[in-house]
Design a protein that fits this description.
By secondary structure, this protein is an alpha/beta fold. The protein is built from 14 helices and 15 strands. It has 3 domains: 17-124, no CATH class; 145-260, Nucleotidyltransferase, domain 5 (2-Layer Sandwich), CATH 3.30.420; 265-442, ATPase, nucleotide binding domain (Nucleotidyltransferase, domain 5, 2-Layer Sandwich), CATH 3.30.420. The model has no long low-confidence stretch (mean pLDDT 93).
Length: 458
C-alpha cells in the first residue's frame, strides 16, 4: 500500500473489501448476500456480495462489511427500502441500526424521510424484486436565450447564455449556511438572475445547480438551507425554485444537484459518456453520467459515502459518521491536514481562507503544502478504485477550489501513481480531465443553462 504522507493510518475501503473477499473465498463455503435498493418511483437497483460462513473465526466482520456496503449504496444510489436475501439475522440487525444508532437515524431521516418520504427499512426476503430503472435524458438543450446558475456554499455563480455561448458571467460572495431567514436566499438568487437577464434580449429558460437533492425542482435536502428552521423550510424553502420561476416570468426552470451538472458539463465538453464528476470545494460534490449519456435517479452523494474503514477515522461534522468522503476531498480535508503538515494558521480564518493560504504556500513550492495535496491524491487513487466497483467509469472529471493551481496537478499525479501501482488495469481505462478556469466557469454554466427543454419542445 502507498501510504498518504500525512495520514499513514488511512485504511482504504477498496483494500479492506478485497481482503475481506479473499477471506470469504478462502473459507471454502461463502454465503451469498443479495441486496436490492428500492426508490419511491419504483426503481430497483441490485448489488451482490458474499459473507463468511457461520462459525468462522472472523465472522464478526460480516456485519461491518454489510453495514459499510449498504451505507455506501444508500448515498451513492439512494433508497427508502432495502431488501436482503442473506443469512438469517443480518437484515434485522441492519434495520435496527437505522432505528437506534445516531448515524443510522441520520441516514434514515435524511435519505429515507426527507428524500423519499418514509424512514428506511430493511426487509429479509427469499426473492429480490426485479431490477429496473431508467435514465433521465436531461440537458444538452442549447438553443435560445438561457440563464444558468450554480449555488455554492461561499459564492453563487450566474451566466447568460445565447445559443450555447456565454455572453455574461458573474460570481457573488454569500454565506447561505448560517442564514436563518429564507428571504436572504431568495433575494440572493433573484439578484443574480436579474443581473444575467440584463444581458439577454429575452429569457427562454433557466437551469440551475446546487448542493443537495432536488426532485421536480422541489428541495428535498440541501446544505445551503441548514440554518433555516423546519417550519420555515416547509413554508418558504421547499418550493423556493418554483417561486424563482414565477418571479422570472414563468419560464421553464430546472434545478438539479450540482454534482450532476458537473458530470453533465464534463460529458458535453469531452464528447464522451461514463463520466464521474468529483468537485472538491466547500464539501464534496459528485455526479454521474451513465454510458448512455443520461443522468439517472441515483443520488451520487459521495460526500457521505465511506472511503476509509479504520475504526478511528475522522468524523463528518453533520452526519457524525466516520471515514466519509467529505473529510478526504474538500476544504475540510485541507483544514484537517494543516496540523500534521506543520502549517499553523490563525484560528479565526475560515476554511476558504485557509485553503487560499495553502495555495499560496504551494505556489512558493512549500513542501508542507505539497504534502497536503499528495495526501489527498493518495486518498483519491484508492477511492477511485472503490468507486469503480459501483460505477461504470471511463472519464473522471476533477474540479473544485481544492484542485485549483499547482495543487490539482499534484493530486492527479499522486492518484495516478496509486492506480499504476495497485490497480494498473484501472489506470489504463480511466481518463482524467481537470478543466481550466474558463471551462470550469463557462462549462458548468452552459450545462446548467441547458437543463430545461423549451416549452414548444416539452
Amino acid at each position: 500500500m502507498i501510504k498518504p504522507p500525512l495520514d499513514p493510518n488511512f485504511q482504504p475501503a477498496i483494500l479492506w473489501r478485497r481482503a475481506f473477499d479473499q477471506k470469504v473465498a478462502d473459507s471454502g463455503s461463502p454465503k451469498p448476500c443479495l441486496i436490492a435498493l428500492e426508490q419511491a418511483d419504483g426503481s430497483v437497483f441490485h448489488h451482490e456480495t458474499q459473507l463468511l460462513p457461520a462459525g468462522h473465526p472472523e465472522e464478526d466482520q460480516n456485519f461491518r462489511h454489510v453495514e459499510r456496503l449498504v451505507k455506501f449504496l444508500l448515498w451513492s444510489t439512494g433508497c427508502w427500502r432495502v431488501h436482503m436475501k442473506a443469512p438469517i439475522g443480518y437484515a434485522a440487525r441492519l434495520d435496527d441500526s437505522f432505528k437506534t444508532t445516531a448515524t443510522g437515524q441520520f441516514d434514515s431521516n435524511l435519505i429515507g424521510q426527507k428524500v423519499y418520504g418514509r424512514p428506511i427499512e430493511v426487509l429479509p426476503t427469499p426473492q429480490l424484486p426485479t431490477e429496473h430503472f431508467a435514465g433521465q435524458p436531461m440537458g444538452r438543450h442549447l438553443e435560445g436565450c438561457r440563464i444558468g446558475f450554480d449555488l455554492g456554499g461561499s459564492d453563487r455563480k450566474v451566466a447568460a447564455v445565447i445559443d450555447g455561448e456565454v455572453v455574461f458571467s458573474e460570481e457573488t460572495v454569500w454565506d447561505p449556511y448560517h442564514e436563518n431567514d429564507p428571504q436572504y436566499h431568495l433575494s440572493g438568487i433573484l439578484d443574480s438572475l436579474r443581473r444575467a437577464a440584463e444581458h439577454l434580449p429575452q429569457i427562454d429558460a433557466i437551469g440551475g445547480s446546487a448542493a443537495g437533492v432536488y426532485v421536480n425542482n422541489e428541495v428535498k435536502v440541501a446544505s445551503l438551507f441548514r440554518g433555516i428552521s423546519e417550519e420555515d423550510f416547509e413554508k418558504n424553502v421547499r418550493y423556493i425554485f418554483s417561486e424563482v420561476g414565477r418571479e422570472m416570468g414563468n419560464v421553464p426552470i430546472v434545478v438539479v444537484n450540482d454534482g450532476e451538472v458537473t458530470a453533465l458539463a464534463g460529458s458535453m465538453s469531452l464528447g464522451s459518456n461514463s463520466v464521474l464528476g468529483i468537485a472538491m470545494g466547500t464539501s464534496l460534490a459528485s455526479g454521474y453520467v451513465n454510458p448512455n449519456g443520461n443522468i439517472t435517479t441515483r443520488l451520487n452523494e459521495l460526500a457521505f459515502a465511506p472511503v476509509d474503514y479504520r475504526p478511528d477515522a475522522p468524523a463528518d461534522e453533520w452526519s457524525g459518521d466516520i471515514g466519509c468522503g467529505v473529510q478526504y476531498f474538500s476544504q475540510q480535508a485541507v483544514g484537517r491536514l494543516l496540523h500534521p503538515a506543520g502549517i499553523k494558521l490563525p484560528d479565526e480564518l475560515d476554511l476558504p481562507e485557509k485553503l487560499l493560504e495553502v495555495q499560496s504556500l504551494m505556489a512558493k513550492e512549500d513542501p508542507r503544502a505539497r504534502s497536503i495535496y499528495e495526501t489527498i491524491g493518495t486518498y483519491l487513487g484508492y477511492s477511485l478504485a472503490h468507486y469503480s466497483d459501483f460505477y461504470a467509469v471511463e472519464n473522471v472529471l476533477l474540479l473544485g477550489r481544492v484542485t485549483s493551481g499547482n495543487g490539482g496537478t499534484v493530486i492527479l499525479e499522486k492518484a495516478t501513481e496509486v492506480l499504476m501501482s495497485e490497480f494498473p488495469e484501472l489506470e489504463e481505462k480511466l481518463n482524467f480531465h481537470i478543466p481550466d478556469e474558463k471551462e470550469k466557469r463557462h462549462g458548468q454554466a452552459i450545462a446548467a443553462a441547458s437543463l430545461p427543454s423549451l416549452r414548444s419542445q416539452a
